Amino acid sequence: MIAMDQIIREGDPILRQKTEKVELPASEEDKETLSEMLQFVKNSQDDEMVKKYQLRPGVGLAAPQIGISKRMLAVHFTDFHDKSYSYGLFNPKILSHSVEKTYLQNGEGCLSVDRDVPGIVPRYARITVKATTLEGEEVKLRLKGYAAIVLQHEIDHLDGVMFYDHINQDNPFQPPENSTPAEEM
Ligand code: SB7
Ligand code: NI
Q1: Ligand 1 pocket, CB under 6 A
Q2: Residue 63 C-beta-side C-alpha neighbours within 13 Å
Q3: Can you tell me which residues the record assigns to a coiled coil (predicted)?
Q4: Any idea of the CA torsion for 51, 134, 85, 20, to the nearest 10 degrees?
Q5: 101 contacts 124 by C-beta, under 8 angstroms
Q6: Residue 153 in marked binding region
């Protein structure tokens, strides 16, 4: 079981590396790792597990956050329209994105960041992601609003990018041009 003490924190150079593609079909080891990652994200939203293991709730996890520099991520969340998403993904790639931006009004956090970094994180409002699922299926996901934000946060980790890299330093709460808050999408 993945626990909080395995989560790589800010300052470790692995979080800033660009990760390697996973060779497909995925090895049993890579599949095992990714399913552990998905289980961790689920556990982090289960009251009993949170209490027992002092987990910090999170909606996703990228492999570099457990010290593995490979293109794998897990997400498990419900959006503002009660639509659920639960995926372990290998080699996710953003095929296309909108010009329109979105953001969370309260900003973002990260399991690898033990401090509050206030500010708006501009994200594309809509993205199309191609990936291979944990089950070995090739999928094309069309995502908008909150779901698009979560996937962009996780895919950023695979490229060594942290959420606060996107915050406008001079005016952290200035909404980007041509944007709608995800809460209103
Ligand atoms: C706010 C939080 C997350 C994504 C988008 C908005 C994920 C938090 C957990 N993680 O650090 C996963 O990388
Ligand atoms: Ni993160």
Answers
A1: 58-62, 65, 108-112, 149-150, 153-154, 157
A2: 25
A3: none
A4: 90
A5: yes
A6: yes
- Rounded Cα distance between 163 and 155, Å, is 11
Residue 157 among known ligand-binding residues: yes
Domains and CATH numbers, the chain: 4-184 (3.90.45.10)
Tokens of 104: 């969370």
On the question of a cis peptide bond just before residue 176, with omega within 30 degrees of 0, the verdict is: no
Q: Closest by alpha carbon to 110, among 20, 2, 11, 1? A: 11
Tokens of 129: 């992601």
Per-residue confidence (pLDDT) for residue 3, from 0 to 100: 95
C-alpha of residue 121 to centroid of ligand 2, in Å: 12
- Show the DSSP H helices in 96-182 as ranges: 145-158
Mean pLDDT (whole number) for 132-156: 98
Measured between alpha carbons, how far is 17 from 36 in angstroms, rounded to an integer? 22
Bridge partners of residue 97, in order along the sequence: 127
- pTM of this prediction? 0.97
Sequence-distant (6+) residues with CB within 8 A of 81 are none
Q: Is the separation of the CB atoms in 179 and 125 below 8 Å?
A: yes
Can you read off the two tokens belonging to residue 134? Answer: 């944990």
In 3D space, the residue among 69, 8, 93, 7 whose CA is nearest the CA of residue 43 turns out to be 7
